[in-house]
Amino acid sequence: MDFESRKSKNIGSYLYDFFSRSMVYHIVFWVCFLLGLIYIDFNQSPEDSLFMIISDQLLNICFYAGIVYFNLFYLIPNYFRWNKLGRYVGLLFLSVVIITPIKLMVFYLKFHDYPVRQSILIDDQMSMLYIHLLVAGFSTIFKIVSDWARHQREKTELEARSMQSELNFLRTQINPHFLFNTLNNLYALTLKKSDKAPEIVIKLSEMMRYMLYECNEKEVPLLKEVNYIRNYLELEKIRQIKEIEIKLKVTGMVTNQRIAPLMFIPFIENSFKHGLGNHTSEGFIHINLNVKPDTVHLNVTNSKPLKLPVRTDKRSGGIGLINVKKRLSMIYPKRHTLEINDNPNTYVVDLHIELASS
Q1: Does pLDDT of 135 surpass 90?
Q2: What is the chain's alpha carbon radius of gyration, rounded to the nearest angstrom?
Q3: d(CA 229, CA 268)
Q4: pLDDT tier, 222 (very low <50, low <70, confident <90, very high otherwise)
């Protein structure tokens, strides 16, 4: 990066930091408030000189700011609590009662050459008190609203960071889970010196490439996710030694749709592990993927043996299935439906996902 680029970037960062400070917003507010008061006073008293109007409103701003910042920096931090609310209201009213005659005296002295204005000032002292109370009340409301908005923003940012951390954690759990099962498949074939082992290595390398270089993104092309499923099924076909019917049917146009990575494979893997894995002879797994421009529908149906082995692990579906349910709820809240039917002879997963518009 050359000197001019660094200089430009430093100036940009400085300006961003400067205008992000709350002091700047306060200054802008009071300047705008001052201009508004000057404009109103000028229209109401066009016979007054511009200097007198500006000086009057500058004094007004000073007293208003004194009330506001005494409230914001002293009264609210020290007394605006449930157990001190009465004391807070009393002190706020007392501060207004004290500052009003001080302001009245300052303006009375300022108008020493204008006895009519001095008389009007004395008559309007209660109005001045009410205005000061109104300014103090608005500053309290502003503080409450701004603190609430900041709390909501911090809460939203914290939830977003927490969600991203959990998604990253779930993804790191899922990837080793697939790798563990696939290596087991390869290990079984190498023990038998099977000629299918090299083919599994190729499929495994393609799957690993996808997981290592593609799945770290928030979304991946749906086409690559489908190819990953095809590789997984081809690997399972090579591994299976029983009479197992494995079918994948993709309908619709897979074009530029995008989806969260590894969203379907845990359901498919679960069908092999907890469904077909319990068969002693024949079985089937049918996978239907219906793709539309903004939705995708996955249906996985696998056969079940008449008698399942007794399981000591009571969790349904294992780590992969638990994690994918969590990911669905976080990534596609109110944009997915998941139905799992554990029938006597079949196990059916039906998943609908609304995809983001391309």
Answers
A1: yes
A2: 36
A3: 8
A4: very high
**pTM given for the model:** 0.56
- Decide if 167 is inside a domain: no
∠ Cα 17 30 114 (to 5°): 155
How far apart CA 147 and CA 157 sit, in angstroms, is: 15
**How far apart, in whole angstroms, are the C-alpha atoms of residue 143 and residue 336?**
40
212, 145: one domain: no
Same domain, 210 and 148: no
Structure token pair of residue 23: 């002091």
Q: Cα 336 vs. chain centroid, distance in angstroms?
A: 18
- Is the same domain home to 216 and 133? no
Burial class, 36, CB count within 10 angstroms (exposed 0-12 / middle 13-18 / buried 19+): exposed
* Residue 255 belongs to domain spanning: 195-354
Asked whether residue 17 falls in the same domain as residue 96, the answer is: yes
CATH of the domain at 303: 3.30.565.10
- Any domain includes 164: no
For residues 153 and 159, what is the distance between their CA atoms, to the nearest angstrom? 10
Q: What is the dihedral of CA 181, 186, 188, 191, to 10 degrees?
A: -150
Q: What is the rounded distance in angstroms from the CA atom of residue 4 to the CA atom of residue 7?
A: 5
* CB 319 within 8 Å of CB 280: no
Phi, psi angle pair for 162, to nearest 5°: -65, -40
If one counts the domains in the chain, the total is 2
The two tokens of residue 342 are: 């554990």
| H or E, element range at 245 | strand 244-252
Helical residues (DSSP H) of 111-221, grouped into ranges: 115-123, 125-191, 197-213
Residue type, 72: L
Q: Are residues 12 and 121 in the same domain?
A: yes
231-260 residue pLDDT tens = 888 877 876 666 788 999 999 999 889 999
Query: Are 355 and 205 in contact, with CB atoms under 8 Å apart?
Result: no
CB 308 within 8 A of CB 277: no
Q: Answer whether residue 172 is part of any domain.
A: no
Q: Measured between alpha carbons, how far is 215 from 225 in angstroms, rounded to an integer?
A: 10
Q: Is residue 184 part of a domain?
A: no
Q: Is residue 26 within 8 Å of 34, Cβ to Cβ?
A: no
Asked if residues 352 and 336 have their Cβ atoms less than 8 Å apart, the reply is yes
